[in-house]
Specification:
Elements: E1 15-21, H1 27-42, E2 54-57, H2 63-77, E3 82-86, E4 90-92, H3 96-103, E5 111-115, E6 117-124, E7 130-136, E8 138-143, E9 149-153, E10 162-165, E11 167-168, E12 172-176, H4 177-187, H5 205-215, E13 220-230
Parallel strand pairs: 1-2, 1-3, 5-13
Antiparallel strand pairs: 3-12, 4-13, 5-12, 6-7, 8-9, 8-11, 10-13
Amino acid sequence: MSDRTAPAAAGNGRVQVAYLHPHTVSHSWHESMMRLVMYDQLAEGRIIDTGGPFMISCGSGSLVESRNLVMTRWLDETPHEWLWFVDTDMGFEPDTVERLLHAADPTERPVVGALCFAARETHFDGMGGRRIMPVPTIYNPAHDTQGNVGFATRWEYPDNTVIQVAGTGAACLLIHRQAAEKVRAEHGDSWFDRVRYGDGRLVSEDLSFCWRLSTLQLPVFVHTGVKTTHHKQMWLSEADYTPPTRSAGGGDGQ
C-alpha cells in the first residue's frame, strides 16, 4: 500500500493504465510492464496509486466496444487525469509513461502516442506465406481523387521529436481527461466507433478516434523518441537476410 496522500479529484496527475487482452499477453509486454511499474513506484507513483489497471477481455470482434468501455469507466469511475492505452503485444521502456507525460500538455498536446509500427502484409511469397514490412503508425491528412478526407502513412519523421500528426494508433497512447470529455460532449460515448471514408471503407477504430478529436480542433502528437516494439508473427526467408560484416562482430564462427 502507498502512503501517498490521495490526490484531488481534478487535475490529479495520475495515469489510469488500460489494456485489452485475448486472455494471453506477449512476454515482452509482461516484462516491460513489470519494469514500468517498478520504475513508477520509485519515481512519481502516477500509476500505482490509481487502484490498478483496467484489464478488459477483448475478442477480435469487440475492439471498438472494449475501447469505449475503458473510456467510460475511466471518466465515470475514476478522477484520474490521464489514460494510457497499451496493447498487450507491445514492448516499451520503463520510463515510457513519464516521457509521454513530459511531452504532453492538457491544452496544447492532450493526446500523445509513442513511436509504434504496424505489420503490413505486402504480397504472397510463393511458399504459402506473405511478405511483411513494418509501417510507422504516423499519419498525415490525405485526400483521394474525389476530395474525400482520409489518412496517409508518413514514412519519414525526425528522431526524438514531438510531432503533430493527423492520426496515430492506440497501441501506446496517452489521453488527457479534458480531451475525452470534449469528444463525449460532442459525439457521445462513441470515441472509437468506426467512421467511413467517402467511398464507404471503414476507418480503423483508433484513427476514427483521431478524426473525432480533429472535429474539435484537439491535436494529436507522436513522440518519436519514445520507442516501442510490436510482437508479430512473420515469415523469414533469404529475402530478409543480410550477412553481418566483420567490423560489426560477425564473420565465421559467429
